[in-house]
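Internal tracking record. Fields below are filled automatically when a chain is submitted to the structure queue. Please do not edit lines marked as system-generated. If the sequence contains nonstandard residues, flag them in the REMARKS field before resubmitting.
Queue: standard
Priority: normal
Entity type: single polypeptide chain
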Amino acid sequence: MECCCYRRQQQDEMIERDVMQWLVQLLVNSDTISDYALEYAVTLLMNLCLRSAGQQQQPQHAAVLHVSRNNVL
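SYSTEM-GENERATED OUTPUT FOLLOWS
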């Protein structure tokens, strides 16, 4: 899966299948996952957010991400 976060077609598929929403929920419960999984989830979410399709989904996740970010830090 690590390679997938850099390939356009796989990124589009993940965005279409609402993986961003799943990642946001994972980050909300970040105290239940390992540091490695947390780092990987944040990196994947950031890569998906860089895509234009991902940017269109960002506003619906913004409030939750803001709270999650503060919890992680």
